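Dear H.,

Thanks for agreeing to be a second pair of eyes. The structure we're designing against is below in token form, covering all 275 positions.
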């Protein structure tokens, strides 16, 4: 199960499918046939959120997934951690086949190899900022002194060294987002999954957070899968990006390539409306 990657990619996804309302595991070919069934085509309960997506993200790359609301971005990024179970396809992260892991392996893998930042910070309200940042390390069994030290260092890195003893509610949205970022970074995972982490922040703070992420990325060289519906953000952060529509990747390329040569009307409208 744990084969090595030969490509140097940190994340490799092949023929990934997710249909809500369908719990069974199928082959990609079966999913393809299933997706053509008249009951689905004519819109019944099942929603095919991810349709036959394949791509890889290289070590140290920021790969942005962009698309309109409902195009399947969150479902896709959640599939990588198996927070949503895909119906078909393979996910390989750091050379490990995530799709083949049992529950125990998956829990260990999530704790050590990947970290995720969500739009809603998900901070624990009754724990201090320092404890929030240290929490992931606690779950991994790191002793108290070491985790407090690492959490304090990371708070300094994100500019919140004086806020460790406060509770999340006393911080602004932007500061809470920094805590969320620190909590993900302190875990020292090579792969970072970020689902609209800066939406909901006011534009100036958002810009600041983007700069902060780029700065940290220069130092830490994480492999980042980043979901946004904002072209400006995608252009600023992404080495490459994919535009998603109706569960599929409509176009993959560098942000410049996509803006200069949109492959169809959907991408064209997307790019135009976001400019
Ligand atoms: N738990 C669920 N059960 C059923 N359908 C779902 C579920 N989660 C998402 N969907 C559907 O799957 C499709 C893709 O949703 P998803 O949230 O992945 O899109 P998105 O691009 O992330 O949208 P947004 O930008 O609004 O977050 C949508 O049609 C959505 O209604």
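And this is the sequence the design step returned. I haven't edited it by hand at all.
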């Amino acid at each position: 199960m744990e084969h090595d990657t030969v490509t140097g990619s940190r994340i490799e996804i092949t023929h990934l499918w997710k249909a809500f309302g369908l719990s069974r595991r199928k082959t990609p070919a079966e999913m393809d046939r299933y997706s053509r069934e008249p009951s689905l085509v004519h819109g019944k309960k099942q929603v095919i959120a991810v349709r036959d997506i394949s791509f890889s993200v290289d070590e140290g790359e920021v790969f942005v997934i962009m698309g309109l609301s409902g195009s399947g971005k969150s479902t896709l990024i959640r599939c990588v951690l198996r927070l949503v179970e895909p119906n078909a396809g393979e996910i390989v992260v750091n050379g490990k086949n995530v799709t083949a892991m049992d529950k125990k392996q998956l829990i260990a893998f999530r704790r050590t190899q990947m970290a995720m930042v969500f739009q809603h910070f998900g901070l624990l309200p009754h724990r201090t900022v320092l404890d929030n940042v240290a929490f992931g390390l606690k779950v991994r069994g790191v002793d108290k002194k070491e985790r407090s030290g690492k959490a304090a260092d990371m708070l300094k890195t994100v500019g919140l060294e004086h806020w460790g003893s406060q509770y999340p509610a006393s911080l602004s949205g932007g500061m809470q987002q920094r805590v969320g970022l620190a909590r993900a970074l302190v875990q020292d995972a090579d792969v970072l999954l970020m689902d609209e982490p800066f939406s909901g922040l006011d534009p100036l703070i958002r810009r600041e957070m983007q700069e902060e992420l780029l700065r940290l990325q220069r130092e830490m060289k994480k492999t980042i899968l980043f979901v946004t519906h904002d072209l400006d953000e995608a252009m600023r952060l992404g080495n490459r990006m994919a535009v998603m529509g109706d569960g599929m990747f409509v176009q993959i390329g560098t942000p410049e390539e996509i803006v200069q040569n949109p492959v169809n009307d959907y991408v064209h409208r997307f790019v135009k409306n976001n400019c």
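Two observations from my side: The beta strands are 9-20, 47-58, 62-67, 88-93, 96-97, 114-117, 191-195, 223-228, 240-245, 248-253. The pocket of adenosine-5'-triphosphate is lined by residues 20, 47, 49, 67, 69-75, 229 (CB under 6 Å).

Warmly,
E.
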